[in-house]
Amino acid sequence: MTRIFTAAAAFSLTLLASIAMAQDVQVSDKMRAEIEERIKPVGDVCLQGDTSCGGPAVAASSGPRSGEDVYNGACMACHSTGAGGAPKIGDAAAWADRIAKGNDVLYASGVNGVPGTGMIAKGGCATCSDEEIHAAVDFIVASSQ
What we know:
α3 crosses α6 and α5 packs across α6 (130-143). By secondary structure, the protein is mostly helical. It has helices at 2-22, 29-39, 67-79, 92-100, 103-112, 130-143. The chain contains 6 helices and no strands. It folds into 2 domains: 2-39, no CATH class; 67-143, Orthogonal Bundle (Cytochrome Bc1 Complex, Chain D, domain 2), CATH 1.10.760.10. The protein is rod-shaped, with a radius of gyration of 28 Å.
């Protein structure tokens, strides 16, 4: 991607210099610097594993996220507001019948979603493992009894 922008910048400068020479116009160093500043790339793309990119490597998580972390990242949007009919965390009455069905049913609902409701698989958390969803369910249940 950067090479495309670099090639485009080089072409633009060459074209500008050609036009300037053809019209007998002088391009000062200041004008050239201003032009280069205006046409420079706005960013770079760095793919994972590419060591030629600038910033430091980001360390991956050393283990599964806590139930509270998963809840805050994936579940809170609906379960703190009741969006889409979701039972609110802390509402013991809304959770009583669900909790009575047992953890396996709650885990399955969290991992697979609940057909006919707004509860989608893993609450839409594509990066969550089943274990992390189970931890989030445990967090919600502990907070809602």
